[in-house]
Amino acid sequence: MTKATKLLNALPPPQRARLMELAQEVSFPEDARIFEPGGRADRFWVVRSGSVSLTQQVTSIQRVTVATLGAGDLLGWSWLFPPYEWDFGAEAFSPVRAYEFDAQQVLRLCEEDPALGLTLMRIVAEILAYRLETTRNKLMEQYSIRRSH
């Protein structure tokens, strides 16, 4: 995998149009916390503009950025898996505009249109695989830097 899949661009036009019927336009100011680890994951976003930092709390006072998302990127996937809680935190790194989707509405749409549901789940799985690969590469890079010192 060489680049991140953009969710909306990866959907065939008729399926994208059906999904977009559920979209709400939202915005977040710079430095806004969008969600916290352990919070209820009942929605997701597709970033339209700006950038979002995905963060992991490492100590009680230290947060580490594990990924930075930009235009076209999927923000949030924990709505798909029990216990439906965020694994990471998310913070607007700059002013952000996004499409927001209610998870229950999207899951209902997937049940009504199984072809759309299967396509959506494959795209989300591809996005997760890409993020896992990039995170692994970052960890390996950090490990090799520490070992060389």
Automatic annotation (TrEMBL):
SMART domains given in the database record: cNMP
Domain Cyclic nucleotide-binding: residue ranges: 7-76
Coiled coil: none
Domain of life: Bacteria
Gene3D superfamilies cross-referenced by the UniProt entry: Jelly Rolls (2.60.120.10)
InterPro entries: cNMP-bd_dom, cNMP-bd_dom_sf, Env_Response_Regulators, RmlC-like_jellyroll
CDD domains hit by this protein: CAP_ED
Record protein name field: Cyclic nucleotide-binding domain-containing protein
